Amino acid sequence: MSDTAALQAEAQKFRDDFARLRDSVGRVIVGQQRVVEGVLTAIIAGGNVLLEGVPGLGKTELVKAMSRALDLDFRRIQFTPDLMPADIIGTTVMSAGPDGRYQFEFRRGPIFTQLLLADEINRATPKTQSALLETMQEGSVTAGGNTHILRPPFFVLATQNPLEQEGTYPLPEAQLDRFMFKLVVPFLNRAELNEVVRRTTLGGSTDVPRIMGGDRIMELRTILEKVVVADPLRDYAVRLVLATHPAAEESGETVKKFVKWGASPRAVQALIRAARVRALAEGRVHVAFEDIRTFAPEVLGHRILLNYDGLAESLSIPTLVNEIAAGVPEQA
Predict the structure, then answer these.
(1) Do 39 and 157 contact (CB within 8 A), yes or no?
(2) Which of 76, 103, 285, 299 gives a 20 to 30 Å CA spacing to 146?
(3) Which CATH architecture is the domain 1-80+113-226 placed in?
């Protein structure tokens, strides 16, 4: 079998697996199809996700369902103002060995898992936030001069509550940039709320079948590198990011007037990685323009910084991103 035929066969298999993953998680999570698809795309692409939504919308249940469907270890950390970096990554303690001699031993913290839910990350102090975000970036923990590698795949889903701002420490723009996606969890409608009540209080819950394991996810990440991204599509992703910068010639009047700073080069990388996952999920081995546009709001939204005029006008960033995506032509 040729390389192209083998890749096409992989794409077809991945399309089936991805659909089964969505259905498996959907047995627990009511509605929120966009959020589920975004989280699954990010974990397969090797990124991390920031979820913004009010309490009670099923964010914890989403990660638990994913851990079962993907057969991954799961832990949850509730962030509070008094949480210290050692509470997350672990600490070195002195203990007595079998021979009675004292020795230093590293006790691993809850970050040593595969699927981590960092609940209300904006309630922790900047020092603790930085400890988590550094681990996200490096995939390892350094303590006592020793480096401890986290078991792959390592995925962080951090949440923040948009309503309560008192006593919180908002993530700086440079820290937000480390998240591949920022997903806003909408409130449920009438039918979805009825279904939640039926499943949770009337005995309608169902099990989540295992679809794939961590080894398969790591294998898929190598397959993603083989998905074809033609030069015009790569350039389209670049122009899409440049269109968020007010000083760039690709930007429109709205961006020039209301935006202080645009998306970073990480945004281009995230657009391409997400587009490759979506192409495979559609059974294709090449990226299309629509694949790049699909997750533009989730990739670009948290990377755009409004200026004073934009804040004064209460400009909607999702609306701005959609306007940018619509204004960038496919052909340069």
Answers:
(1) yes
(2) 76
(3) 3-Layer(aba) Sandwich (3.40)
